[in-house]
Amino acid sequence: MSCVGDEIKKRRESVGISQNQLAKRAGCAQSTLSAIEKSTKKPSTETLRGIAGALGCTVAELMGEAPESDGTITDAERRLLRAWRAAEDAARRMALDLLESHPAEIKNEIRA
User: Fold this and answer.
1) For the chain, what are the domain ranges?
2) pTM of structure
3) Are 50 and 8 in contact (CB under 8 A)?
4) How many Cα atoms within 13 Å fall on the side-chain side of residue 100?
5) d(CA 29, CA 3)
6) Gap between the Cα atoms of 44 and 6, Å rounded
7) Domain spanning 2-62: which superfamily?
8) What pLDDT digit, counting tens, does each position of 65-112 carry?
């Protein structure tokens, strides 16, 4: 299970959120998340699902069972994904409303 904690920490840091922020979004205590990242505690299935959901990935990806990204997303898409994962729910709703209200204009901007 040590690689699960490493993967969680790597993904959490890549989206720029603290343990406290991730724990809150995942529905667990910060101390639990810290112990999981340090591999001193084995996460429950429920906790893993919460963490995966909060990080925008699957439990399988956290466990190293899924293939790495094939690199087909653009840098702009990668930046959007990082921002999405780091955003609070209200900001996510606002961003989604904006993207859905102007799809053609935004699609052209992303490609630029």
Assistant:
1) 2-62, 75-111
2) 0.59
3) no
4) 6
5) 20
6) 16
7) lambda repressor-like DNA-binding domains (1.10.260.40)
8) 755 555 566 777 778 888 888 889 899 889 888 877 875 554 555 544
